[in-house]
Amino acid sequence: MAKYREPVCRLCRREGGKLFLKGERCFSAKCAFDRRAYAPGPHGRGEQYRHRRESDFARQLRAKQKARRIYGVLERQFHRYYVESLHRRGMTGLNLLQVLESRLDNVVYRLGLAESRSQARQLVNHGHFMVNGRKTNIPSLMVSIGDKIMVRPSSCARTYFKELPAVAEARNVPMWLSRDLKTFSGDVLRLPERSEIDGILDEQLIVEYYSR
């Protein structure tokens, strides 16, 4: 399975803003973006690069890359999600964001059962979750309205899940999901609305990028 294996803090610096890829660390003094808020590489601090006017293509590319990196999706899979969104009824940009939000690893993260999407992906990979009573280890699995996600009974005895309720209580759950920390489970009530998805994403620029 392909995945990004380089330091993820470089991605935040390249996109010029926090993407919250490392969970609680992004809110602490250890955050690399707070200490070096410029693009990585030999030209990251150059005035001529920081103040250069971006072309339309550059803005479209950056919007696409930012979305890919937030959700931890590689290019081929991201493009497949875009094609799927084209064939759905409604606005393509919103459809794309809803597809990304429907990934199992993202839903686990939104439920507060993991600190970051990368951690949620790892937990799913290790087989700690069930969807509608069936074990799954596929982070990209698309959940649907009415699906129930829960931690496997055999995994609840692990130290991570024993300590989870005290930490997860402080994490807000979006209105399109419901959560029960007593049973380590959650339900998909509906698809998310645009206001319930990260505001730093610009889906219109992504659509323009693929419509060239």
Question: Concise description?
Answer:
Helix content is 41%, strand content 8%. The chain is of the alpha+beta class.
Account of the protein in words:
This protein is α+β, with helices and mostly antiparallel strands. Among the domains are: 1-52, Ribosomal Protein S4 Delta 41, Chain A, domain 1; 103-188, Structural Genomics Hypothetical 15.5 Kd Protein In mrcA-pckA Intergenic Region, Chain A (Roll), CATH 3.10.290. Helix content is 41%, strand content 8%. The chain contains 10 helices and 5 strands; from the N terminus they run H-H-H-H-H-H-H-H-E-E-E-H-E-E-H. The protein has a 5-stranded antiparallel sheet with strand order 2-1-3-5-4, covered by helices on one side. Strand 1 and strand 2 (134-136) form a beta hairpin. Helix 5 packs across helix 6, helix 6 (92-101) packs across helix 10 and helix 7 crosses helix 8. The longest helix has 16 residues, at 56-71. The radius of gyration is 18 Å and the shape is globular. The mean pLDDT is 84.
